[in-house]
């Protein structure tokens, strides 16, 4: 649901960064998103395409890397990434606590080409 | 050419939110962003607190459509203002800034912002608040902390409503609290009957203490 606003913000930054570097095109954008933010790749790509039309970012390729929350087992201390449908320790089955939410949402890098 | 950036996607919103918060703090206003599902009891919480808090209080009501909650609060004598997002699933800092330009919050007041009923998007946005609290009702089921960790993890307290109908719903409070311990260890939980106000005294005291602690820093 919130992909549209995010895509709009991303396109704004892409256009700004390309402009500042005198690049004609933005070929790709690498985005890192926490799983907890529930950003859907298809939806984000769709809105990026929509908002990028007619800008230097038109046709930009989205590469989305999703980071998962990290949990720490309260019994054996193991630190592990959250797996689907489970919050318990994969080693001992003990209860775990989220120690790193992994709730970031940022542009890691962009790929530029051509000149303006 | 590959250019590494590391730019936060909501940086503009975050900057504006920080400026809004600084402005409100300068005027001694304490701001609470109230999150939760549709119908969880957010407006009931605001109403029950309005009956208990002695400082002046203003409320911003966020809804996708309609001003029903604002009219409910105004009928109670609360200074309530409506933001209709017309489809957006969360409030953001620019909406709050625009609204603060229209309304008149008294110095040293409470400012409560009832966010859009939604467990995902509102948790992602800072809008100038000092803290977030999440309202969760027994009617939603006890699995919510596991399904929506971020809203609980980013909140400073959880208000648990509708325990009066927990049995009919099959709500398992122990399971709910276990989920909270997993995703937001140590998060204080305050039971509230949104209709009778039972439990609201504790919430009011906790908020007053949080406000004092923030003023001391
Ligand atoms: N039985 C019971 N009903 C409650 C309780 N708290 C709230 N309600 C009822 O639940 C309904 C929804 O409460 P609201 O306070 O309007 O909930 P809300 O979160 O503001 O709802 P939206 O703004 O529409 O998302 C109302 O009919 C309330 O009277 C409670 O503790 N027990
Ligand atoms: Mg409401
Ligand atoms: Zn373990």
Features:
heterodimer, A: 116 residues, alpha+beta, 3-stranded mixed β-sheet, 3-stranded antiparallel β-sheet, 6 strands, B: 217 residues, alpha/beta, Rossmann fold, 7-stranded parallel β-sheet, 8 strands, 39% helix, 22% strand, globular, binds guanosine-5'-triphosphate, binds magnesium ion, binds zinc ion
Summarize the SSE layout with pairings:
The complex is a heterodimer of chains A (116) and B (217).
Chain A: H1 3-20, E1 25-34, H2 41-52, E2 61-67, E3 70-73, E4 79-81, E5 96-100, E6 105-113
Helix pairs in contact in A: 1-2
Chain B: E1 2-8, H1 11-26, E2 30-36, H2 42-50, E3 57-63, H3 68-75, E4 79-84, H4 93-102, E5 110-114, E6 131-137, H5 144-147, H6 149-153, E7 157-161, H7 166-169, H8 173-183, E8 189-192, H9 200-216
Parallel strand pairs in B: 2-5, 2-6, 3-4, 3-5, 6-7, 7-8
Helix pairs in contact in B: 1-4
**What is the CA-CA span between the terminal residues of chain B?**
46 Å
Shape of chain A: elongated
Q: Can you summarize the main beta sheet of chain B?
A: 7 strands, parallel
Number of strands of chain A: 6
> What spatial form of chain B do the alpha-carbon principal axes imply?
globular
In CATH, what is the class of chain B? Answer: Alpha Beta
Strand share of the residues of chain A? 25-35%
**Biggest interface, chains and residue tallies:** A-B, 34 and 31 residues
Order of secondary-structure elements of chain A? HEHEEEEE
Q: Any idea of the CATH class of the domain at 2-68 and 102-113 in chain A? A: Alpha Beta
Cα Rg of chain A: 18 Å
Strand order in space, largest sheet of chain B: 4-3-5-2-6-7-8
What oligomeric state is this? heterodimer
Rg from Cα of chain B: 17 Å
């Amino acid at each position: 649901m919130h992909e549209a606003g995010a895509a709009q913000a991303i396109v704004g930054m892409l256009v700004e960064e390309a402009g500042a570097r005198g690049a004609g095109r933005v070929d790709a954008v690498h985005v890192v998103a926490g799983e907890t933010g529930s950003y859907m790749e298809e939806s984000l790509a769709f809105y990026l395409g929509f908002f990028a039309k007619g800008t230097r970012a038109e046709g930009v390729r989205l590469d989305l890397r999703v980071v998962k929350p990290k949990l720490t087992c309260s019994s054996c201390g193991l630190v592990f990434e959250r797996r689907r449908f489970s919050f318990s320790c994969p080693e001992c089955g003990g209860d775990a606590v989220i120690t790193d939410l992994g709730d970031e949402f940022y542009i890691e890098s962009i790929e530029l080409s051509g000149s303006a | 050419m590959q250019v590494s950036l590391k730019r936060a996607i909501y940086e503009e919103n975050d900057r504006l939110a920080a400026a809004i918060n600084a402005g409100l703090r300068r005027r001694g206003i304490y701001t609470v962003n109230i999150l939760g599902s549709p119908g969880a009891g957010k407006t009931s919480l605001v109403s029950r607190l309005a009956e208990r808090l002695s400082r002046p209080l203003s409320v911003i009501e966020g809804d996708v459509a309609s001003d029903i909650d604002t009219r409910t609060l105004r009928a109670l004598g609360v200074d309530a203002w409506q933001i209709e997002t017309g489809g957006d699933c969360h409030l953001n800092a620019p909406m709050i800034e625009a609204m603060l330009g229209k309304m008149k919050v008294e110095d040293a007041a409470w400012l409560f912002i009832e966010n859009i009923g939604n467990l995902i998007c509102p948790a992602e946005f800072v809008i100038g608040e000092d803290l977030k609290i999440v309202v969760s009702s027994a009617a939603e089921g006890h699995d919510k902390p596991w399904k929506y960790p971020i809203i609980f993890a980013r909140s400073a307290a959880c208000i648990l409503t509708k325990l009066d109908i927990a049995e009919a719903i099959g709500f398992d409070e122990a399971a709910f609290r276990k989920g909270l311990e997993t995703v937001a260890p140590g998060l204080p939980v305050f039971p509230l009957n949104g209709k009778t106000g039972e439990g609201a005294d504790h919430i009011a005291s906790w908020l007053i203490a949080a406000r004092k602690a923030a003023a001391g820093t």
